[in-house]
Design brief:
The protein is built from nine helices and eight strands. With about 290 residues, it is α/β, with parallel strands linked by helices. The chain has two domains: about 5-205; about 240-290. The strands form two sheets. The chain has a six-stranded mixed beta sheet with strand order 1-2-3-4-8-5, with helices on both faces. Strands 6-7 form a two-stranded antiparallel ribbon. A hairpin with a 4-residue loop joins β6 (about 145-150) and β7 (about 155). Keywords: Coiled coil. It comes from Catonella massiliensis.
Length: about 290
């Protein structure tokens, strides 16, 4: 772990953070029912939401051995048992539709106990607040629900995915909320629920806690970068192996033709040496025989 941040350095870091930085968002919203209520009411356009619990940086673990777990930026629950997962996604990859589906699935798996009827499964909302307009349609909010294609009627399974466009600048509640999420100075915010909380953590919060959280955040970023690097290396190795295999296939076909080996014999050897199906071997033979001609 890095050395503890000194007071001045931490103060500079905190001054530059906004609620679009998940380290700050998870701290501001942790156990902050007024802030969570405001966020959900604006995004969902519902004034009757009664949030009863909210936690930041909640880990949901997979029940499968080796299965992937996730750390949620914000997890809230209302008085009707509905679950809300709010995520800050600053990169395009982080906002991938498949990731939203996975988050939705992980919310569902924690809702029912053994013996409960499936109809008791409460609604769930996965909300991705993206720094850019992910769908590039200029809308402030994109609401995704399942529909029956043939009838265009809603498939009422209670699963909802919502993308909030962080580039939206309209003079309405959504525009003001997005402005506040990107604002560094609490005094320039519209919503007091967010302004008061941001000011507290920047000016009065426990520096030891924030320093520790920042170090955890930095370590997570480093781990993500390590994973990305390992993925790139694996992809490069896979590409190199594929190119090496193709070169060997080319050599086998061209050498066989040059020495007068029959087509069937060459295809048989391709199947045996490279573990190809007969159909795949025939395609490789055809490809490289034409290149040789």
């Amino acid at each position: 772990m890095p050395n503890k941040l000194n007071e001045e350095r931490l103060k500079d870091i905190l001054a530059d953070l906004t609620l679009l930085d998940d380290i700050m968002m998870s701290q501001v919203f942790d156990n902050n029912i007024p802030a969570a209520s405001l966020l959900l009411k604006v995004i969902l356009r519902k004034n009757d939401i009664k949030v009863i619990s909210v936690v930041g940086q909640k880990v949901l673990k997979s029940n499968e051995i080796g299965g992937r777990s996730i750390k949620l930026d914000i997890l809230a629950e209302d008085s009707e048992g509905k679950s809300y997962n709010v995520e800050i996604q600053r990169s395009k990859d982080g906002a991938d539709e498949h990731r939203a589906r996975f988050h939705s699935c992980m919310l569902d798996t924690r809702m029912l106990q053994a013996g409960q009827d499936f109809k008791e499964l409460a609604d769930s909302y996965v909300i991705f607040i993206t720094e850019k307009d992910y769908f590039k349609e200029g809308l402030p909010i994109y609401s995704i629900d399942r529909v029956i294609k043939e009838t265009q009627k809603n498939f009422l399974d209670g699963s909802h995915i919502i993308y909030v466009n962080g580039e939206y600048e309209g003079n309405d509640e959504v525009g003001k909320l997005i402005h506040d999420l990107k604002e560094k100075n609490s005094k320039d915010m519209y919503n007091k629920e967010l302004a008061e909380s941001l000011e507290y953590f920047k000016e009065k919060g426990d520096r030891r806690v924030m320093s520790s959280k920042w170090e955890e955040f930095v370590e997570e970023i480093r781990e993500e970068e390590r994973e990305k690097a390992e993925k790139k290396i694996a992809q490069a190795e896979k590409k190199a192996n594929k190119e090496k295999t193709e070169a060997s296939l080319l050599t086998t076909v061209t050498a066989g033709i040059a020495y007068g080996v029959g087509k069937d014999k060459i295809i048989e050897r391709l199947c045996k040496e490279f573990k190809l199906t007969k159909n795949a071997a025939e395609k490789k033979y055809k490809k490289y025989a034409v290149e040789t001609a």
